[in-house]
Amino acid sequence: MTYTDLLFEKSFVNGEWINENTTQFEIINPVDLSIISRVYNDDRTMVKRAIDSASEAFKTWKKTSAKERSSLLMKWYDLIIANKNEIATIMTLESGKPIAESLGEIEYGASYIQWFAEEAKRNYGDVIPGFTTEKRIITLKQAVGVVGAITPWNFPLAMITRKIAPALAVGCTVVIRPSEETPLTALAINYLAHKAGFPKGVINTVVGTNASEMGKELCENSKVAKISFTGSTTVGKILMQQCSDSLKKMSLELGGNAPFIVFDDADIDLAVAGAIAGKFRFGGQTCVCVNRILVQENIYETFVEKFIEATKSLKIGNGLDTDVKIGPLINSKAITRMQEMITDAIKKGGKVVLGGNFIAPQFFEPTIMIDASVDMLLAKNEIFGPIAPIFKFKTEEEAIEMANDTIYGLASYFYTKDLNRTWRVREALEYGIVGINDGLISSEMVPFGGVKQSGQGREGSKYGMDYYVDIKYICIGNVE
Ligand code: ADP
Fold it and tell me: Could you tell me the pTM of the whole model?
């Protein structure tokens, strides 16, 4: 296959490519704002149609055996891996992600399918001792029903598979509403699922630009049992309000404000390498990206010097060029945010010691800012771009207080060689994820998710399927 064999232009509903609206929207390559393709701009009525088809398909899909679902997931996994170069090209074109990272995302995203293909066979219930002599008690874990998955542009594949692989594994059917920035990757993998043999209506993808109306249908339609969302905290709150009427189950993976603490006993070179990986992955546009670097005062200057040297080597450009490490910002909203954050930080005493400029409209240089302070916009908000502010702290207590001083609680990182400190600090950090002496923390084998306003629920790991099942307790009485 070539990548163009995997380019589709309309929603996939009930086993067919379909459009109701005749207008199209453009999918833009953020590198040069050229048009990659045009996609039919469907809306709420198509979402409703997809929900109807998922609801119909659920009647039979939920009765399939775990082995059958497992084997379909494995076939889908194999097809994605076999076509990874083609999918990576599409992903890089529509998101600007450097090609090596796109390939990495495909392996990572597909690994959730493989993992939950295995886990599908282990959706165990319990046998519980009877609470009187003649009672026998068991539990069943049953699929919740139709799942609505609303996903962002920064991981066009992995944020879909992380949600729908566990859902499919337990017997749910799904309606995916991918970001309007990156619908092409979503359509490509839905096609491969179809080729793998998933029955019609089990996996549906609806593409369109009217996010709020499409989201409303998913939240308000009584045939949908659960919403799984990855995106901003602002939109997460809207969805939660919309789901409150029907008390729909929700999983929410929302914003982060990751601290990266370097204590004075840390291996500084290791910390610098971790900061580079954790900060500049996809140009800083991931929810676990380092947002605030906190460095203890007596190693502050050494760390800054080494961090500047390492950052200088990051090449900016078109993600299709294999040497490029920093691609373009996704859209004009991101450009404005970088401008606002830098201007605000400089006004409040921050000093730019590397970068700080746009080298073309979509390209912002990897930027290091020292003398960052907690009143800056970039200390309170998710930067989602290649700006690295460095804060100074004196004591461990101060570092913990600064790290926790945020409404968010997704990923956090710290570097130290002191064993006692690793225990103290990991317990004190109010975060769902803690990386110690490590900047790369994601895997299908671990529970990913946040606390506070970073969301609820966990994705991946042995816990991942729990969010797509109801536990039914069965009491058999009067056993003689
Ligand atoms: P980001 O800033 O990363 O794009 P958003 O939360 O705005 O984060 O978007 C994440 C996903 O949610 C995208 O697919 C987007 O289209 C969608 N979205 C945005 N607003 C709404 C809404 N009101 N209802 C449902 N989905 C929405």
Answer: 0.97
